[in-house]
């Protein structure tokens, strides 16, 4: 939970506001316009699609898509939850967040009818079960599926620790493409053996830019935030 609170402040908007205040303060003290020019450059780099999308695109493609020919018939499929809404008034399809839904669907698509699927994740703030939200859908899509839940893990480190205690011949780790590098690092750190990475939910599908992508915009800021978040989380768990 502490990690998620800290990472909340690693945001292009928060950084831009902080640097703006700092720049104005320094300018008033020194009268040097250079500090304002430097701020504008940093603001442009933080909030422009040609920068943020390029960084996130290459980060997401560190791990290639899964080769289904490498998957054994008795492999276990482990799905890292990506959030859920704790509201039973919502339709079943709307309770898991998009990230969780895509990852869960990937497990259905690349597994066989005899595969065991483990759905993992619980929100550390509102206590909603990402695992249960995904379970409700997968049991409709594939009623005969062998599904287990990990509703105790609240972050990727705890999920890898859960995996380290499992008995399996091969395990397929399914998560978003931007999350997979962190999972790979933790898997190596905890000596997870015979695993295959299955990246999905790529946020940047291509790098075809339009004229408006050369100007700062909110969507570009969101992509940069995603990139910063993953880099910071990777470093946090690497040194934790």
- Structural class of the secondary elements? alpha/beta
CATH topology label of the largest domain: Rossmann fold
Give the terminus-to-terminus CA distance: 14 Å
Number of strands: 5
Please state the average pLDDT score: 93
Main-sheet strand order equals 3-2-1-4-5
Number of domain modules: 2
> Quick one: biggest sheet?
5 strands, parallel
Poorly predicted sequence stretches spanning 5 or more consecutive residues? none
List keywords for this structure.
5-stranded parallel sheet; 9 helices; 2 domains; 240 residues; alpha/beta; Rossmann fold
Secondary structure layout plus pairing:
Elements lengths: L1 H7 L3 H19 L3 H13 L2 H12 L15 E5 L17 H13 L5 E5 L9 H12 L4 E5 L5 H9 L6 E6 L3 H10 L5 E6 L17 H22 L1
Parallel strand pairs: 1-2, 1-4, 2-3, 4-5
Structure notes:
The longest helix is centred in the C-terminal third of the chain and has 22 residues, at 218-239. The chain starts with a helix and ends with a helix. The chain is an alpha/beta fold and 240 residues long. Helix 2 runs antiparallel to helix 3 and helix 4 crosses helix 9 (218-239). It has 9 helices and 5 strands. The protein has helices spanning 2-8, 12-30, 34-46, 49-60, 98-110, 130-141, 156-164, 180-189, 218-239; strands at 76-80, 116-120, 146-150, 171-176, 195-200. The protein folds into 2 domains: 2-61 and 217-239, no CATH class; 68-200, Rossmann fold (3-Layer(aba) Sandwich).
């Amino acid at each position: 939970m502490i990690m998620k609170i800290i990472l909340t402040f690693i945001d292009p908007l928060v950084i831009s506001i902080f640097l703006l205040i700092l720049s104005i303060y320094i300018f008033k003290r020194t009268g040097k316009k250079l500090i304002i020019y430097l701020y504008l450059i940093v603001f442009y780099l933080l909030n422009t699609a040609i920068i943020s999308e390029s960084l996130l695109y290459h980060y997401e493609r560190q791990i290639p898509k899964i080769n289904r020919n490498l998957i054994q018939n008795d492999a276990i499929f482990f799905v890292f939850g990506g959030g859920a809404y704790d509201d039973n008034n919502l339709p079943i399809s709307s309770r898991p967040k998009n990230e969780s839904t895509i990852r869960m669907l990937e497990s259905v698509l690349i597994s066989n009818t005899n595969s065991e699927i483990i759905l993992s994740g619980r929100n550390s703030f509102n206590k909603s079960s990402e695992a249960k939200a995904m379970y409700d859908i997968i049991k409709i899509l594939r009623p005969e599926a062998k599904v287990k839940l990990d509703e105790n893990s609240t972050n990727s480190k705890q999920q890898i620790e859960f995996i380290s205690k499992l008995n399996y011949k091969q395990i397929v780790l399914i998560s978003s493409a931007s999350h997979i590098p962190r999972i790979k690092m933790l898997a190596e750190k905890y000596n997870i053996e015979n695993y295959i990475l299955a990246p999905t939910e790529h946020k940047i599908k291509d790098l075809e830019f339009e004229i408006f992508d050369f100007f700062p915009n909110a969507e570009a800021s969101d992509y940069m935030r995603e990139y910063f978040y993953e880099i910071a989380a990777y470093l946090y768990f690497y040194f934790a």
